[in-house]
């Protein structure tokens, strides 16, 4: 037995050893295997062995030291700093008479024990929503509680139910929000805005999808010899959504409307978004009014003015009809809109003349962007048609038509002008796209030198790089602009205006969808305060963090649901050979998007065990014994396997 002095000496040595440790911090990233990694803020990744991962969850923030074990440097957890995983969804499973949940989480493949209460009535195989009751850090044993039974694989629209639970994006609004909405008096609220201008005489029309009900913008154009006078009215929910109210807080939490196949999850309740704010034909509505002059010779906008007004849309038009009218040179199969007093307010001739002027204006705006900014290549959309179970019955490819391109040009201009005005006033929130990632600068330089012959000394200066990016876009022999886009940073939300490299704008934000996006709603409040000469409201740090987080997850729920449904749709076609094109390249292989379906799967080049295979990280090409594979290259692929559990599609090159 050691005497007290020896024990004291050992304790002192241990303290000295602990003090000598170099401690790092990072976030845990799981894998589909038992091991994982911890990634520091600097982007360094360190291995976590299976024993360490038993005590950790994906997303955990930990303090760790580095040790040598099994001939490699490994991370050894020292302290759990924070755990972001509180709620999750998964499948209920049973083993040895006890019920567990298999979490549906990327990088987490262990079962979690369930508290008996709540789990006893849940059928095995059902989808459930759970709350974590005990973290496994202390003893490696996690414990969860069943909050809701979502259904099983035969439940209609189960994929939608799981997606909404996974992203905490239910369609129902809290009771406090419903009470606030019921108490709104829109007529009195609009009447009280005695400083709103009367713009009901403007011949504004909305142009949207045929089924759209939450129309949030209307437009009209007056054409002169040397310019166009453009008026854009944008719905004004800021009149009905009081800052700090339950409705406002819920809108911020949701961040934006989400468009799932066959279902819309609104940021604002439909009673507000549609019944009070949507720019319905023949109905007086409050709106943000942007008016600007566009010079015919230069395509530049000037004399821009922002105000708030009462407007009345003259007609609800749809993209398909407008495109057909412009192609035919006449209005086909439509009715003129009667004004409230029964008189015709807009003739077919006036309607067509206004649309043709808008077409000429937006063509000039497009030319201006082609010369001065960046224009991304047109890509089709894909509409999923669902059956009564919520599964895909057909996929329809939809090319963007003339009317959609017109509206897009007007919205891009509106957002750019709003960003420029807010920047001049020293306020605003901006969408900033800061060019290439720091760790990819040398790769970008090598790519430009190999393809264009030279590269600017400074790859971070927007004004220097813009003509280079335009030259890259013009290349016909290879998709150089797509190659460069692989090395871009993510778009970020900032309070200081910075360029948006992807669009080629010196300033950019969004104000044209305040019914659907909280950023736009917040900027409407700032624009209204500036217009009235009042102090400009700003977001607090916590609100800004929520909004920033929402930027990265804006389409996550829709992407998750669409991919799951597409995976189910493709399962019966295993073994078929289909045409597609390469859309993304990694050192291990490349993803192929199937023509006419918009479904992507992965071709694993590493699995070929091809001794001739080489990967070019600059041109993003695989040189193999079967040929060279590069971005946008058409290929024939066989659907090798569709894993419904992992929602994974594996393809292989046919032939």
From TrEMBL:
Keywords: Cytoplasm, Exonuclease, Hydrolase, Nuclease, RNA-binding. GO terms for cellular component: cytosol. InterPro entries: CSD, CSD2, NA-bd_OB-fold, RNase_B_OB_dom, RNase_II/R, RNase_II/RNase_R, RNR_Ribonuclease, S1_domain. It is an enzyme of class 3 (hydrolase). It catalyses: Exonucleolytic cleavage in the 3'- to 5'-direction to yield nucleoside 5'-phosphates. GO terms for molecular function: exoribonuclease II activity; RNA binding. GO terms for biological process: mRNA catabolic process. Its main location: cytoplasm. It is found in: Cytoplasm. Residues 575-654 form the S1 motif domain. PANTHER family: EXORIBONUCLEASE 2, RIBONUCLEASE. This is exoribonuclease II. The lineage of its organism: Bacteria, Pseudomonadati, Pseudomonadota, Gammaproteobacteria, Oceanospirillales.
